[in-house]
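User: Study the fold:
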Amino acid sequence: MTNLSKSTRPSTSRDTLVILDSLAQLRNLDLERSDRQYLNEQLAADPSLASCDVSGRLFFAHLVKQGDRWQQLEKARRAGDAMAVRLNGAKRSEAQMISLQDDPALTLAMAEGVALGSYAFRKYKSDEKGAPTLDKLSMIAKEVDATAIDELIDIVEGTCTARDLVNEPVSFLNAKQLASEIRNLSRNSGFKVQVMDKAQIEAQGMGGLLAVNKGSIDEPTFTIIEWKPKKAVNKKPLLMVGKGVVYDTGGLSLKPTPNSMDQMKCDMAGAAAVACAISIAAKQELPVHVIGLIPATDNRPGGNAYAPGDVVRMHSGLRVEVLNTDAEGRMILADALSYGERYQPELVMTIATLTGAAMRAIGTYGTAIMGTAPDAEFAKLEAAGNAVFERTARLPFWEEYGEEIISDVADIKNLGSDLGGAQTAGKFLARFTTHPFIHLDIAGPAFLTKRDGYRTKGGTGVGVRLFYEFMKQRAKAR
């Protein structure tokens, strides 16, 4: 990961990244007139990125244009990523970023794009071919203080940690190891962690989590995370529940389509988002009381695997008819939601790679959201998503979707019809909480098969920046 730091003096020999909001500001750069004119002409034609080589010194510039605020920030991030790609391609290890404009958010956004765009999962590589080389970025920006840079460092570290977790194969990251990694996060961040083992999960009567785990030789875990500052703005906690299926074969309802299992190590992306967002909140000492619940297991067809037709008694006491063992995420999340009732939360949020229906509806470009919370809560989440460009698309949550999961032999079934699959999954979850509820389905953006700017190939860390921004704005509003 690229290390960020604040500096006061620019170097005349270092590769340079510039952000400006007027072409006239190019005069402030230590460049020959011909080089400034060359950059001027490029930016006039395409303000997103201009570049030149000054005696071996790489020079990049991004011109901020008037327009939608969130698009401005995203264009700055993408410019930073494009610069990082060029610097890494040239095997540069150090660069400086100079801001000639006065908006700190835009400056930080471009630095964020540089840092996130320089990520790569290299743990299992035996050589350095293609590895990012950009190790240091010093920022010369009078409008940005050291505190803001420290916050950005925490955000980037949290996002990259989530990416690492999502990119880890199940051969390393089983349910117990996921809990161990969260413990490691807590040591560096300061939040509290409690991990339940299988015996404790059985004692709690978490039938959904235990049913999904029946086909595995690895035991499940149930991890409880809490960040409770002394001066929290909320009297009742915010509850976040993340799906922790460390690998999903579909169980006995084995995934049938070609390549459909290749990416299933990513099925715990929701768990990674919850843990890493709370770790940033703790590092930044946000005055928000938040609890995270992470039920974790793999879903396999071995042993005494649960089967279509089974009826499972859940933690809440509801009985669920299993029609498809590949609808396992909702089974384990339901137990967590029921367990979370004891906290009397002011808002409940689930985040999960839950349905192909959500991905087919909006692609990889955003997160499908739905639920029972007041419109104001959805508006806050949408605003947070726009700020970090992890956009949300609210789906209808009509009563009729709930009718589709009524079972003939049990209280409810774990699958609706072949239409509206994202919403019927959401309706299933809503049966297990009595509090205002928002469900986020990240099946589309959690794992990419090709790079999309600073969202690098593989795990994207989606949800981390969104949840942190949501909590941060919540703290400011109280």
Summary: The first strand starts at residue 3 and ends at 6. The chain has two domains: 3-141, 155-477. The first helix runs from residue 33 to 45. The CA atoms of residues 205 and 317 lie 9 Å apart.
